[in-house]
Amino acid sequence: MKTVTFPDGRVVPALGMGTWNMGDSDSRRADEIRSIRAGVEAGIRVVDTAEMYGSGRSEKLVGEAIRGLRDEVFLVSKVLPSNASRKGVRRACAASLERLGTDCLDLYLLHWEGSEPLEETIAGFNDLVEAGMIRSWGVSNFDTDAMREVKSVRSATPCAANQVLYSLDYRGPEFDLLEYDRKTGIVTMAYSPLGQGGDLLRAPVLRRVAQRHETSLGPASPAQIALAWVLRDENVLAIPKAGSLRHQHENIAAQEIILTRDDLAEIDEAIAPPRRKEPLAMI
Ligand code: NDP
Fold first, then answer.
1. pTM for the whole structure
2. Where does the record locate the signal sequence feature (predicted)?
């Protein structure tokens, strides 16, 4: 199982799980909870949520899903920029902890950059570390220049992660952001690695490459190739969202796939890597 290492030395599997839109539908709720629990029981540790998702519904569902499993989970949530003042992060974090039914987050991210000065937000994050409410902090949707700004802020604890849109649909971060994060010891978390289950999974190149691979579940699928591709980078942690057991098991099995040089070349031929800086896209 591929792993990534956070600046404080904690090591987690490079495959995690997302939970955006979970908890929004009563008819899917039981499947979503089963999917998260199965993931954790299979050794996936990172569970990603945010106060924004369903205005707290995702956090509540995650809290229910990880009951009794909290110690196995590396729990990540995010604060909205509108709550990111020094005092605001404390209030928002307390509310997230309440919904999640826990007393500490493993990682707390600023969801995207807003108008609050970074110094304020980072001071708030350090207060939370000191209070034992979070173990580490990071950012999301920050491009390379914004990461330089983060690095320039004096902070008692380091930025641990940058969560960005990164998939075969959005290869922009390969130009310089992935390298910047790696060399500054920051883990890149790739969100929407499956292109949100859309057109990407119908890309002919993914079908062709999938035909050359197998996992313990049988012939590989285009989604598994898309995920294996994101996971090929040693500093990237991917957080696909799987609302069903079938998808969760497929995503777990995707970790078995090692793409060959020929596979990677064929993918590059069909979906070119960035040749110049592209502004970071976000969903
Ligand atoms: P993903 O790229 O993870 O795609 C999720 C979609 O793919 C769902 O429709 C899911 O269906 C489907 N899917 C999952 N596994 C498979 C599979 N093996 N085969 C085929 N289809 C599959 O999109 P998300 O936007 O959900 O991104 C993942 C996570 O990243 C979010 O849930 C959230 O936690 C985080 N995120 C963070 C953002 C940020 O600003 N920081 C922004 C967006 C996302 P089903 O649900 O039916 O299994």
1. 0.98
2. none
Residue nearest (by alpha carbon) to ligand 1 atom 9: 197
Asked whether 120 and 86 are in contact (CB, 8 A), the reply is: yes
Pocket of ligand 1, candidates 57, 247, 248: which has the most ligand atoms within 8 Å of its Cβ, to mutate?
247
Residue 172 in any domain: the answer is yes
- Rounded mean pLDDT for each run of 10 residues along the chain, 283 residues in total: 96 98 97 98 98 98 98 98 98 98 98 98 98 98 98 98 98 98 98 98 98 98 98 97 98 98 98 97 96
Residue 208 lies in a domain: no
Q: How far, in Å, CA of 2 to CA of 267, rounded?
A: 21
Domain extent for 55: 10-198+236-246
Measured in angstroms, how far is the CA atom of residue 192 from the centroid of ligand 1? 5
- Residues in CB range of 175: below 8 A, 6 or more apart: 273, 274, 276, 277, 278
Q: What is the ipTM of this complex?
A: 0.99
Q: What is the tally of structural domains in the chain?
A: 1
Active site residue 170: no
Residues in the annotated binding site for substrate = 111
> Which CATH number belongs to the domain containing residue 72 in this structure?
3.20.20.100
User: Does residue 252 lie within any of the structural domains?
Assistant: no
